[in-house]
């Protein structure tokens, strides 16, 4: 990596192998920035010197004290990357509809939705193939390139979810441009057997999510099994209007077994899910007869998604180092039923994955990690309607990472190389010899790197800075679309000549961690070269407007602030607050699509530790205000502001063998009628969900 500073032209020119980008940045702080810096500095120094120590439980530390299991096993304070953690307990308290809904509660994370059930996470304005999802340590692909394809993973049977904000292509390969979502499954208890079950009841959809699990550990062997079922009727908006065919359901089976031997630890897991999602269209009422309010029938148009995954994680403890081998196979079947069992779209994606990692502690304070990844994917069409061609993908990644710690300063740096091959095959109704879009082969080679530092200014004050690059090859829809996208009623045209996207992200954060006060502020600037986006044209095809995938340079920048106050004089009380704002622009001056509006969240939490039958109790009212999105993209619309009033409460009750955990959560308690900017249904005049209560119960048994 080469860095040049030209003070006369006030430009920073960064060269990284074949990736050269000019980033226009002023070298001088303006007065407003200096005032903000002075204010933050005063706040840090005040919080450092004021406040006594206490041994009371600090829930704010749950956000930060954890082990990063994605690439290297270090605490969050020992890395320059911006990483956040969501435990199983936190996810259970929020009583969200799905995993994306859980993650969207945090600053800088939103969700793109097509009703309650279909959603995908948006990290700092990036989503889909610009966000990499890891499951059991391996890349997870769920055909997420299309807007109405959700993440498709249940929150049951998980230990935690870790989110890396910012590019991490050095560590994980392509698609990790905006961040990484690392989903970590539950582990059996230390010894013995356990059984647990949990149920959630949803008032708005009269829905249910219930699951039960059994685990066993006997000396050096362990096993686990979990089954679950989910079912929801159509939801209603704030005016009580039913959103026809927004129903969904799913079945889940999760199993695992493993062992520990001398120098060898193996963890194997199998995951099965089958989900059905109702398909929502603007004129659905004209072709679909309205049925009972709370019916679960899937007689109308809907998606059928079946997922099978097997992963094997192996850790070999060598004399002076550690070798980790992770292999897996994933099968994703996606079908669209037009109603009455008539399958139109039928795609099957097979993925074979492998990851080899070698870790060595060179000295007491210096660690080196070498990482190698291999991915092979094959997509095949079996249905009559085809929107992307049959294709194969091959990707190989090799990288090295170095970490050094000394005198409160942590330095990180890494360099990696990636090769990706995309080959489309002749596919009926799409790219046959008579069609303009022909099969093609694309080979992309890129080099990526990262450098960062974390420094303890004081015992409780941490400053982080990180610079990293990322890349992504255009997906099949962007390269080869040539037809009507019925979900949004437009004709989409791909471009096989699109170049790979590359980005450079600069992230700085300031953290204050005191017993009575936690504060974190982050600023980021994400510069893209050859950003791919969809734009309308002047052409029409049989009345459908033609949209074409194009690319140009782009920029995303924003800020995130989070704080937690725990007054020493009022035990059990906590004040939580957060703010996030993102702006995305194209090089030509236009705005990027699907950029979430700025959001402010605040809540007051009160906890009681009791000695009777009820051992603990908490209540947490929350207020969320989402600003208007007045900077829509070319084919988007202005979105007004809205606010939500939510409530989380729960208690722990002593049981005969293990405690009972009871919870009651309410969302949109004022029953506001609103449409979020990232809701794809707002263009049909359909609003988000109205008031909803979720009652939950969990119970575990151990012997």
Explain what the structure shows.
By secondary structure, the chain is mostly beta strands. It has one domain (2-702): Maltoporin, Chain A. Helices cover 6% and strands 56% of the residues. The protein contains six helices and 36 strands. The model is unreliable at 1-70 (pLDDT under 50).
Keywords:
703 residues; mainly beta; 22-stranded antiparallel barrel; five-stranded mixed sheet; 6 helices
Assembly form of the protein: single chain
Beta-strand percentage range: over 45%
* First-residue to last-residue Cα separation: 56 Å
Overall average residue pLDDT:
85
Rg estimate, integer Å: 25 Å
Shape call: globular
CATH superfamily: TonB-dependent receptor, beta-barrel domain
**Helix coverage percent:** under 10%
**Counted beta strands:** 36
Quickly give the structural class. Answer: mainly beta
Number of helices: 6
CATH hierarchy: architecture: Beta Barrel
- Regarding CATH, which class? Mainly Beta
Describe the biggest sheet? Answer: 22 strands, antiparallel, barrel
Give a short overview.
It contains 6 helices and 36 strands. The protein has 703 residues and is mainly beta.
List the helices and strands and how they pair.
Layout: E1 2-6, E2 11-16, E3 19-24, H1 31-49, E4 67-68, E5 74-75, E6 82-87, H2 88-94, H3 99-103, E7 109-114, E8 118-123, E9 131-135, E10 138-139, E11 158-165, H4 169-172, E12 179-185, E13 192-202, E14 207-218, E15 221-232, E16 248-261, E17 264-278, H5 284-287, E18 302-317, E19 321-337, E20 343-361, E21 366-381, E22 391-406, E23 409-424, E24 441-458, E25 461-472, H6 476-480, E26 482-485, E27 490-493, E28 501-514, E29 517-541, E30 544-565, E31 573-586, E32 599-609, E33 614-626, E34 642-653, E35 660-667, E36 692-702
Parallel strand pairs: 9-12, 27-30
Antiparallel strand pairs: 1-2, 2-3, 4-5, 6-11, 7-8, 9-10, 11-12, 13-14, 13-36, 14-15, 15-16, 16-17, 17-18, 18-19, 19-20, 20-21, 21-22, 22-23, 23-24, 24-25, 25-28, 26-27, 28-29, 29-30, 30-31, 31-32, 32-33, 33-34, 34-35, 35-36
């Amino acid at each position: 990596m080469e860095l040049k500073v030209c003070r006369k032209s006030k430009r920073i020119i960064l060269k990284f192998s074949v990736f050269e980008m000019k980033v226009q940045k002023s070298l001088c702080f303006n007065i407003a920035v200096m005032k903000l810096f002075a204010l933050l500095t005063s706040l840090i120094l005040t919080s450092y010197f004021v406040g006594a120590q206490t041994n009371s439980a600090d829930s704010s530390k749950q956000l930060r004290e954890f082990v990063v299991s994605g690439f290297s096993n270090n605490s969050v304070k020992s890395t320059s990357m911006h990483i956040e953690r969501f435990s199983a307990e936190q996810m259970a308290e929020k009583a969200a509809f799905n995993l994306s809904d859980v993650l969207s509660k945090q600053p800088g994370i939103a969700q793109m939705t097509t009703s309650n059930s279909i959603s995908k996470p948006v990290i700092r304005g990036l989503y889909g193939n610009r966000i990499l999802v890891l499951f059991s340590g391996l890349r997870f692909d769920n055909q997420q390139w299309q807007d109405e394809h959700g993440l498709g993973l249940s929150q049951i049977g998980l230990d935690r979810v870790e989110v890396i904000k910012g590019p991490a292509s050095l560590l994980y390969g392509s698609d990790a441009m905006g961040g990484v979502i690392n989903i970590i499954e539950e582990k059996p208890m230390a010894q013995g057997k356990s059984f647990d079950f949990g149920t959630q009841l949803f008032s708005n959809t009269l829905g249910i999510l219930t699951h039960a699990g059994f685990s066993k550990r006997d000396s050096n062997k362990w096993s686990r099994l979990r089954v679950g079922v989910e079912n929801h009727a159509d939801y209603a908006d704030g005016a009580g209007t039913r959103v026809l065919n927004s129903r969904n359901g799913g079945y889940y089976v999760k199993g695992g077994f493993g062992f520990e031997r001398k120098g060898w630890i193996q963890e194997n897991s199998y995951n099965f899910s089958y989900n059905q999602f109702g398909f929502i269209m603007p004129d659905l009422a004209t072709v679909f007869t309205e049925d009972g309010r709370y019916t679960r029938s899937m007689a109308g148009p809907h998606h059928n998604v079946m997922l099978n995954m097997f992963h094997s994680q192996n850790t070999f403890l060598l004399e002076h180092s550690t070798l980790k081998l992770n292999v897996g196979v994933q099968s994703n079947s996606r079908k669209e039923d037009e109603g009455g069992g008539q399958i139109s779209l039928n795609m099957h994606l097979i993925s074979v994955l492998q990851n080899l990692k070698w870790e060595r502690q060179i000295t007491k304070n210096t660690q080196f990690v070498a990482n190698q990844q291999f991915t092979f994917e094959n997509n095949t069409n079996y249905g009559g309607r085809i929107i992307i061609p049959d294709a194969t993908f091959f990707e190989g990644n090799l990288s090295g990472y170095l970490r050094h710690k000394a005198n409160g300063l942590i330095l990180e740096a890494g360099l990696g190389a990636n090769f990706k091959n995309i080959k489309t095959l002749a596919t009926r109704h799409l790219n046959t010899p008579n069609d303009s879009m022909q099969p093609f082969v694309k080979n992309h080679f890129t080099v990526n790197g990262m450098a960062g530092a974390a420094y303890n200014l004081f015992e409780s004050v941490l400053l982080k800075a990180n610079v990293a690059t990322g890349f992504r090859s255009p997906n099949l829809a962007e390269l080869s679309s040539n037809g009507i996208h019925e979900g949004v009623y437009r004709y989409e045209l791909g471009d096989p000549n699109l170049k790979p996207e590359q980005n450079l992200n600069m992230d700085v954060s300031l953290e204050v961690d005191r017993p009575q006060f936690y504060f974190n502020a982050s600023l980021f600037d994400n510069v893209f070269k050859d950003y791919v986006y969809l734009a309308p044209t002047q052409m029409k095809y049989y009345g459908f407007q033609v949209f074409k995938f194009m690319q140009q340079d782009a920029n995303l920048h924003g800020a995130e602030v989070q704080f937690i106050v725990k007054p020493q004089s009022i035990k059990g009380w906590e004040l939580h607050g957060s703010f996030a704002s993102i702006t995305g622009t194209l090089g030509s001056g236009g705005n990027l699509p699907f950029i979430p509006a700025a959001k402010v969240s605040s809540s007051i939490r009160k906890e009681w530790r009791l000695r009777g039958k009820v051992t603990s109790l908490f209540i947490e009212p929350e207020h969320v205000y989402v600003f208007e999105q007045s900077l829509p993209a070319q084919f988007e619309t202005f979105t007004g502001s809205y606010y939500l009033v939510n409530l989380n409460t729960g208690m722990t009750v002593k049981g005969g063998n293990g405690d009972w955990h009871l919870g009651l959560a309410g969302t949109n308690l004022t029953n506001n009628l609103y449409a979020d900017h990232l809701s794809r249904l707002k263009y049909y005049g359909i609003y988000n969900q109205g008031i909803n209560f979720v009652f939950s119960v969990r119970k575990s048994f151990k012997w």
